[in-house]
Write a structure and sequence with these properties.
single chain, mainly alpha, 3 helices, about 65% helix
Length: about 60
């Protein structure tokens, strides 16, 4: 599995620490398995949060071609 990570110049040390942790824990796979197997929360407050993220995404992000 590959996980893309990015940072600015000030975040390189932290990114490398997280990368080492993921490799040592053997995690990324367990976290991804749990995430994929978990049903989404559908209460109103969670739908509102998702809508906020979608609105921010639509306003500030452009599709990658």
């Amino acid at each position: 599995m590959k996980i893309a990570m990015a940072n600015d110049h000030a975040g390189t040390a932290l990114k490398n620490e997280i990368k080492a942790y993921l490799k040592n824990e053997g995690i990324a796979m367990e976290i991804v398995k749990t995430w994929l197997a978990t049903e989404p929360l559908m209460d109103e407050k969670y739908r509102r949060r998702v809508k906020k993220v979608e609105e921010i995404n639509n306003q500030y992000c452009v599709p990658v071609k």
